[in-house]
Amino acid sequence: MPDITRDEVAHLARLARLALDDAELDRLAGELEVILGAVAQIAEVTDAADVPPTTHAVPLENVTRPDVIVPSLPRDTVLAAAPAAEDGRFRVPQILTDES
Amino acid sequence: MTDLTRLTAVETREAITSGQASAVEVAQAHLDRIAAVDDRVHAFLHVDAEGALAQAKRVDAGEVTGPLAGVPLALKDVMTMAGVPTTCGSRILEGWRPPYDATVTARLKAAGVVILGKTNMDEFAMGSSTEHSAYGPTHNPWDLDRIPGGSGGGSSAALASYQAPLAIGTDTGGSIRQPASVTGTVGVKPTYGAVSRYGLVAFSSSLDQAGPCARTVLDAALLHEVIAGHDPCDSTSIPAPVPPVVEAARNASVEGLRVGVVKELQGDGYEPGVTARFEEAVALLQSQGAIVSEVSCPHFGYALPAYYLIAPSEASSNLARFDGVRYGLRVGDDGDRSLEEVMALTRARGFGAEVKRRIILGTYALSSGYYDAYYGQAQKVRTLISRDFQAAWSRVDVLVAPTCPTVAFPLGAKLEDPLAMYKQDICSIPANLYGGPAASFPAGLSEGLPVGFQVMAPTLRDDLLYRVGGALEKVLPPAIPPLSWES
Question: What ipTM does the predicted assembly reach?
């Protein structure tokens, strides 16, 4: 059974861009251990060794459409749904700091 | 005058075409019904009275005709509808009004269907009870203290409380079928790719499939025909004709149909009442000429662990789009914090506990060092489950099993135990992993609560589901909820 530490959950939370608090990290460490313990039983399926993994539930090949321009959503309509917009663009918090 | 909310979709359309009722009267009757009971059921997150009445007027003006023109419908809140709030049961999308219609929504509108509003669901369709909605749970009309199933509990509860004769659900691991099972309604997950995913907010893209929910088999088939069909906006949409589902529902004969009972989906862990109703339904099919045998699908026992690796992995990737930049919530943007900090704060505030759990689980399963053992192995097991189905089709035409091992459980009973909640999907997941169609039909009651009968069929043979469902419906007494809480 995988042993999941709170530090590991904190690392996963950083990767997933989730600012979890201490209580959440503690709870998730316990829950993840239980869930992973249950799903780890797929390792028992030994006849899977030489089986190709599924990539599509219903395989389709070469789906294409005619290369023609069709209307897209008006810019104002899209920006109206954004948390912040400026000069016809999405406004985002700073990406670069003074040091970089 | 007849109560317009008690009619089936077919009867509703007849009432409109014969002049017994106008589409506006039908829509208003349902809006009144919602106003009268939904404070107790909580099936709807948003009611679009204005849009519904405007659409009904178009039908009354003869601008749109067809078998479902003027028939009201409840739309799961995971499907976009231009200008109408779409939350997916999440705070992160609170107040978002999508700028476009999902293909399903557009098809419904074009068919004259009257969309009453958006129904409650587990956040981003992750759950089996609708208790993971950020906006509070939905209550099962059969017993308000019990769950209506999930994730599409709002849609199933709307049907069972006569707030709508039709509903749309989406099914990633059972979110159409399990709610249908526990509310005594019909729920169909079509073949993967049969109904467009364009505008369906993605949870697990290789599994997500929208489908029809109704109180009768024929109503579900008519809705199936409206929403299915190839869509160039979805690259996984199948370019094939829609199977003859309406014809199959009308002439529901199982004479000579080979029906396989799945050996691995019965026994320990199945409530005795569920097993009893299931076996009676099988006997009823046999008495109508079906040829019944038992079929072993040896890898079905690994469907649950495979699913709970594949679906969270895809979810952790899909939900990366909620970054507080283009739509939805943004938290902590004080001018000093970086983009990354704002993103992490936004997601921590906007997502609920179950969504966070699955994002972390998926992130783990996809991380370097664990990928082969978890996600890679799960995708191989998925292939083996599909091969179990393929092997079965050499012997039988359809597979049958209970939809769910239990009847509706009390609200709160499994909320603190994620694994127990996940096990609700044990019978429904194999069909999602395989991609073939599957449905739940009412099979009677156990201690006063509905039991669901599941039918699974080969890819693109959705019509077979309706043949079996229709045959059962002919001989079983209808599941009528007592609604004793109303009086």
Answer: 0.94
